[in-house]
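Researcher: I've got a protein sequence and the SMILES for adenosine-5'-diphosphate. Could you write out the 3D structure of the bound complex as structure tokens? I'd like something to compare against our soaking experiments later this week.
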Amino acid sequence: MTAKIVVHNLVKVFGPRPRLALERLKKGWTKKEILQKLGQTVGVNNVSFTVNEGEIFVIMGLSGSGKSTLIRCLNLLNKPTSGEIRVDGENIVEYDHNQLRKFRQEKMAMVFQQFGLLTHRTVLGNVEYGLEIKGVEKNKRREIALDALAKMGLKGWEEKMPQELSGGMQQRVGLARALANDPDILLMDEPFSALDPLIRREMQSELLDLQSKLKKTIVFITHDLNEAFKLGDRVAVMKDGSIVQIGTAEEILNNPSNEYIAEFVKGIDRTKIVRAKDIMQRADALVSLKDGVRVAIKEMQDNGISSVFVVDKERKLRGIVTIDDCIKAVKEGHSLVEILKQDYYTTKEDAYIEELLDLGVKTKYPIVVVDEERRILGIIVRTSILAGLLGNTNQD
Ligand SMILES: Nc1ncnc2c1ncn2[C@@H]1O[C@H](COP(=O)(O)OP(=O)(O)O)[C@@H](O)[C@H]1O
Ligand SMILES: [Mg+2]
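Model: Sure. Here is the predicted complex with adenosine-5'-diphosphate in place.
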């Protein structure tokens, strides 16, 4: 893993005497005391974290906890009061005017909650805007903008004005505009919070799809825990300007670092958080097509199981055989291929338990987790779905 953004002891104070506030913070004053005694607001209080290249790093917290202040520090829309922000190893806090302009044009793009589109420009004009400022030649920028819009499903809408589009579509334009610059890093400040729940879920899934292709480094802000856990490779929880816990959804759910987070995660629906890959086991017992019936029987006996999955030489799933069918096949001289059954269920590693509950009830066999090529990644037995629901998913 390569570190893309490293934030070290970042502080942002709003007020006329930030240095004084900083001094008092170092002496142990709280955000509340600084507000009461100095009349200044600590937006971000001594925050440190690393965002890895290619990950979606979510910053989650209630309104007023400092999320926007923090993300606006990352592109220096807010000038930090103290601390370092290293991007690809360079401390951007020390950048001069030119370096900063170049950095914003080339490395980072931001998507805002209220879309932030220019109302007097067409959809296409909005997406072209950043490229125009960057000095990209006219035909070239049109080509790039059209392509970005097409990728966001907005073909045919290029000449409309933003106001003519629904909220969801306006935010697609926002995303297209951000992606047109092909930045390494996407900053997203509650980009879906203004959208209806259904559209919102759709956009979340699309973002995940998009990310699996683009592999940007994304810092995503939300006040919604479900959204945080759905999207985040890791989640940082903020309170009163500080980060109170950083971890994967699993880690935070299973080991909330304090009462505040425990309270926060109490109402969470695990079926929408825990994924197939979190609860799958290694498929230790497998039989290869070329091995034949007798090997299959031995494999089942050795592992104390009554059915076993059959794969080809590339480990791609071909079917399942039962012990009874195998014994019969030996007697009647049938081969493994002839007794293969297909009445099992497969799933993808990113599927949520929610989708597996139903299968878990219906199936006679373990559910098989396969990749795009139907190679077996693992299997899920009924009890591990239950364990996943109860929060006990350590089963190796
Ligand atoms: N420009 C500003 N001037 C003064 N105070 C600010 C400014 N921006 C944010 N704050 C304060 O900083 C704190 C954190 O705000 P913000 O980062 O917007 O929280 P969030 O995005 O988590 O809702 C709040 O107390 C807010 O009032
Ligand atoms: Mg905010």
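Model: The pocket of adenosine-5'-diphosphate (ligand 1) is lined by residues 14, 41, 43, 61, 63-69 (CB under 6 Å). The chain has two domains: 52-77+88-270, 277-390.
Researcher: Great, I'll pass this along to the crystallography team.
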